[in-house]
Structure formats: structure tokens, C-alpha cells
UniProtKB/TrEMBL annotation:
Lineage: superkingdom: Bacteria
Family: Belongs to the prephenate/arogenate dehydrogenase family.
Stretches assigned to coiled coil: 234-261
GO molecular function, one term: NAD+ binding
Swiss-Prot/TrEMBL GO biological process terms: tyrosine biosynthetic process
Organism: Enorma massiliensis
Protein name: Prephenate dehydrogenase
Prephenate/arogenate dehydrogenase domain mapped to chain residues: 1-291
Keywords linked to the UniProt accession: Coiled coil, Oxidoreductase
Transcription regulation recorded as keyword: no
Entries under Pfam families matching the protein: PDH_C, PDH_N
Chain ranges passing through the membrane: none
Length: 291
């Protein structure tokens, strides 16, 4: 098996380490020379280029969304020449970006016009750290993987999903789900982007500087993702700005209800708000455990 990877950050690097640990040949490309040098010590066989692309069974675009599209546009012609989606000839291309509408709209069109296979994906795994140095071969083990196939006839859609599942299964993902770009971005604005905004904003309180000796699990849990890659997250959030803005507005409204209860000295109202959140969380946990 041969895998090509564009971008050797935490996600791309973890894919590289995972496939290499399984005995696959890994070709890769990263704009940082030091990262490329480090990756080629024991993980990457050679650079991903026009000569190695035809050898790949799978190509993973793991850079920032715009960089993924730029690489795909530059290589769409060669991918088309070596591919025949009807016979599953040629590599299947996936991306791992945290947004799908902005990426998939262009990527689906490039794949259709040039005649190669593309499926959007989003591995639901990561840490608060970034870069190849923090990449792990087991990062995706047990994690959910979201698949976003193009709109096409049922037979071709199933073929694409089956190919992606077969190529990704050895990595050890815990589950696979299928959705649309629009639904993906609507939900991910809540489950991922909003959490990063809240954590990042939370540590801006002046009290954060005095937390030492006064904090435990609650502080650690809420601040874990305040440490982030600003450039990457700014790009992701702007690509999903409408959904994220709506989630922030909803949160502000909910927080304001607690503030008003406190300012009014209304203990019963505050207790009701807290009980409501506790009830919703318990119901969500019960639903997840029975799924």
C-alpha cells in the first residue's frame, strides 16, 4: 500500500506514522524543510511529487483548507490522467479539514471535471498540540471518522465510500458516519469551534493570572483547547462564520440568563437554570451510551 500526504502537522503526521507502522510506503509534502527532514528519518520514504503520485492508493490532504485546494488544483490534471473512477483505477483523494462546505464545493468540482475520486473526511481526533513532533501512530485509534461523499448516483457513492472505508480501516477508527458538507459544518461549529472560542475567551479573565493553587479539574478541562494554532483556527472559523456566529449568539443568550439571575439575587431561577443544564447533559450522556 502506498499513501501520499500533503501537510505533516499533527493530523497529517499521525496518518504518516500510522500507515508507516502498518508497513505502507508513505510519500509526503510539507512546506517546512525541517519537518520534511525529520519525517524522512524513519517515516516518509520520499517526497510526494508528480513521479510518486501515480504509485499512491490514497492521497490525504492534511494542510490548511486553502492550501489543500491549491494543491488539488495544481495536481488535478495528473490525477485525472491516472484515474478512472468507474473502475476504481488511480488514487482516491481525501481531505481532513475541519470545515467541509468551503473545501468540498471546489474539490468535488475538480474531481468531476478531471475524472478522479475525491471524498471529504474529518477525523474526530486531536490534541491541544500541533506539529509533526506531536504526531502519534495511535492518534486515530477508536476515534470517529466523518465521511462527506459527493452527490452522485447511489452505486458510485457506495463504491467511493467502500474504497475510503477499506483504505482507512487499518488505522483503527472506532466508527464511520456519512453526512453532507452543510450538516457537517453546522454541527462542527458547536462541537469543535465553539469549544475553542469559549476556552480561548475564558483565559482572558484577569483572574486567570491568579488561578495557581485555586484550580483543579474544572479549570484544566475548560482551558485545554485555549492553547491552539491561531492561523489554522482563524481560517476554519471564517470558513464557517455563519454557523459559528449563531452558536456564539446562542451561548451569550444562555449565559445572560445566569447573569440576570445572579444580579437579581434570584436563587430559585439560578437553581432552575443549573438543573436544566444538568438534565440536558444527563440525557445526552444516556443517549450516547445507548447508541
Amino acid at each position: 500500500m502506498c499513501v501520499g500526504i500533503v501537510g505533516l502537522g499533527l493530523i497529517g503526521g499521525s496518518f504518516a506514522r500510522a500507515y508507516r507502522s502498518l508497513g505502507a510506503t508513505v510519500y509526503a509534502l510539507d512546506t517546512d524543510r525541517d519537518t520534511m527532514d525529520a519525517s524522512m528519518i524513519e517515516t516518509v520514504e520520499a517526497p510526494l511529487d508528480d513521479a510518486s503520485i501515480p504509485s499512491c492508493d490514497l492521497i490525504i490532504l492534511a494542510a490548511y483548507p486553502q492550501a489543500c485546494l491549491e494543491w488539488l488544483e495544481e495536481h488535478a490534471e495528473i490525477l485525472g490522467r491516472i484515474s478512472d473512477p468507474d473502475t476504481s483505477r488511480g488514487p482516491i483523494v481525501i481531505d481532513t479539514a475541519g470545515v467541509k462546505e468551503a473545501v468540498c464545493a471546489r474539490a468535488f468540482e475538480l474531481a468531476r471535471v478531471n475524472g478522479f475520486a475525491f471524498v471529504g473526511t474529518h477525523p474526530m481526533a486531536g490534541t491541544q498540540y500541533s506539529g509533526f513532533a506531536h504526531a502519534r501512530a495511535d492518534l486515530f485509534r477508536g476515534a470517529p471518522m466523518v465521511l462527506v461523499p459527493p452527490e452522485t448516483d447511489d452505486a458510485r457513492r457506495l463504491t467511493l465510500l467502500d474504497r475510503v472505508h477499506t483504505l482507512l480501516a487499518p488505522i483503527g477508527f472506532g466508527s464511520f458516519s456519512v453526512t453532507s458538507p452543510e450538516e457537517h459544518d453546522r454541527v462542527i461549529a458547536f462541537t469543535s469551534q465553539l469549544a475553542h472560542v469559549v476556552s480561548n475567551a475564558y483565559v482572558k479573565s484577569p483572574t486567570a493570572r491568579a488561578h495557581h493553587g485555586f484550580s483543579a479539574g474544572s479549570y484544566r478541562d475548560l482551558t485545554r483547547v485555549a492553547h491552539l494554532n491561531p492561523g489554522m483556527w482563524a481560517e476554519l472559523m471564517m470558513d464557517d462564520a455563519k454557523n459559528l456566529s449563531q452558536e456564539i449568539a446562542s451561548l451569550i443568550e444562555a449565559l445572560d440568563a445566569y447573569r440576570l439571575a445572579l444580579d437579581a439575587g434570584d436563587r430559585d431561577r439560578l437553581r432552575m437554570l443549573l438543573a436544566e443544564g444538568d438534565r440536558i447533559k444527563r440525557a445526552l450522556d444516556d443517549e450516547a451510551s445507548s447508541a
